[in-house]
Amino acid sequence: MRHAPLLLVVSLGFGCGISLEEHRRLVQQNLDKEKVVYDAEMAKMRATCQSEFTASVDRIGAIETELKLLGLDVDFTKSDMGTQLKNTLMELELLRKQRAQAEKDAAQFRAIAEKLKDMIDAGRIQVVKRKGRMTLKLPDEILFPPGSTRLLKEGTDALVSVIEVLETVQDREFVVAGHTDNMPLGKGGAFKSNWELSTARALEVVRVMVASGIPAHQLAAAGYGEFDPIAGNETKEGRAQNRRLEIIVMPRIQEL
Question: Tell me, which fold does domain 116-249 have in CATH?
Answer without folding.
Answer: 60s Ribosomal Protein L30; Chain: A; (3.30.1330)
